[in-house]
Amino acid sequence: MNERVIFQSAVPLDNPYRCAGTLQTWQAEVGKNAVGNSRLMLALSAAFAGPLLQPLSVEGGGFHFRGGSSTGKTTALQVAGSVWGGGGINGYVGTWRATSNGLEGIAALHCDTLLCLDEIGQIDAREAGQVAYMLSNGRGKSRAGRGGEARKSSEWRVLFLSSGEISLAQKIAEDTRNRRAMAGQEVRIVDVTADAGAGMGIFEVLHGFPGPDAFARHFKAAISKNYGHASIAFLTKLVEAPTKNVERAAVLMKAFQEQNTVSGADGQVSRVLARFALAAAAGELALEFGILPWASGNAFDAARKCFRAWIDGRGGTEAAEDRDALTTVRRFLEAHGSSRFELIHGEAHAGTEQAIDSRIINRAGFVRHQDGEREYIFLPETWKDVCAGMDPGRVAKVLVERGFMLTGGDGKPQVKQRLPGIAKPARCYVVSSSILADD
Ligand SMILES: Nc1ncnc2c1ncn2[C@@H]1O[C@H](COP(=O)(O)OP(=O)(O)OP(=O)(O)O)[C@@H](O)[C@H]1O
Ligand SMILES: [Mg+2]
After folding, report:
1. 376 and 405 in contact (C-beta within 8 Å)?
2. To test the ligand 1 pocket, which listed residue (33, 39, 64, 70) has its Cβ within 8 A of the most ligand atoms?
3. Per-residue pLDDT tens over the stretch 86-141
4. What is the tens place of the pLDDT at every residue in 138-152?
5. Fold classified for 23-314
6. Where along the chain do its domains lie?
7. Is the beta carbon of 212 within 6 A of some atom in ligand 1?
8. Could you tell which of 64, 65, 71 is best to mutate to test the pocket of ligand 1, judged by most ligand atoms within 8 Å of the CB?
9. In a 10 Å sphere around its CB, with 0-12 CB exposed, 13-18 middle and 19+ buried, how is residue 195 labelled?
10. Which residue has a Cα nearest atom 29 of ligand 1?
């Protein structure tokens, strides 16, 4: 591996891969102080994962630290960035404040290394979802050249870290066209709460510093003087015995996945688990190389803690679409259950919520009382509206699986029902009010 490679770019670049200080000082002041702080350790571990993406054939993607202001999110990104570089006015960490075209160029520049993007709040909500796919899938837009011919689009492989006060899903929801984040986007940018739950923002162990504020300032000061050496040391070690090291990384990754597999979890969960496993493996490899001054198993523990935080944050291990299906229907019934459903079977009597002559404005469906529960009846067209852009069939299936929707004799979610004002029995969806009590 003595080949000298010189990178020639078509455009002038600000090279963020600078070095300062020494590896030893970085280890003492940055690496050691990260111990016990799961978010910092995950960020540091992930920093070494970029060069392993290709040899391990795993997909790119990112971790997003979400939390309130001054919890240490940017600090975590800067700590990870110091593995690769720093200096200049802004250091190694870039920002989301860019267009998708601009981010393409930035991503290509960070191919196989680490990309850090701070403040997700700054990207245009209309572009956020697309960018999530673009960064992880590693390919820019196809464009036409001057003569209309297809130009080669830029390509990259990147593991990225991101931060913000809101999640990607919340960012996408800011779009006035009111779009929901697709499950695929949420799998690509994994949301980890920045607050580690120890009452000190992102930090859990202060290593003798008087408070989290001073601890954050210590990191900022330490990495302004020491950066860039860790990645060089890692790459040097990696290529000394490439086959052996990649095999070791694969073994570590598999071990993490096996230890943390959640039985019965959705495929989305195992895909995200693979991303945590990659970071964990990279961290363990870096500590085995003597670069991260941690004890064996530390990187695994930190990644495990963050993986659990991710599961808690998403509300369980079911598919994101299934969870959305339940919350969408539940939200609709919470908002309209007592005002937009017409009571049937002449059940309105004194004391019930709806008097016989009460008028339903903008009727969404019908309601009847059954065994102490209420049953909400939707006609198929209204059901589509309730599902708000999701596949109505899939939403119905999820509700049937959880026992919140009645099935016909054929096991299908639609049942035939006589309804007031409709001559023939109509096919409808019947949802039990027990969905409102379930959490
Ligand atoms: N966990 C913490 N507890 C208390 N103060 C903190 C903590 N983390 C950071 N700070 C303070 O906030 C300053 C900014 O830190 P940092 O840039 O990491 O915050 P941030 O979470 O990115 O905030 P913002 O959302 O405003 O960008 C630090 O210099 C420090 O003074
Ligand atoms: Mg910040």
Report:
1. no
2. 70
3. 988 778 999 999 888 888 888 988 999 999 999 998 998 888 888 888 888 888 77
4. 887 777 777 777 777
5. Rossmann fold (3.40.50)
6. 23-314, 320-437
7. yes
8. 71
9. buried
10. 217
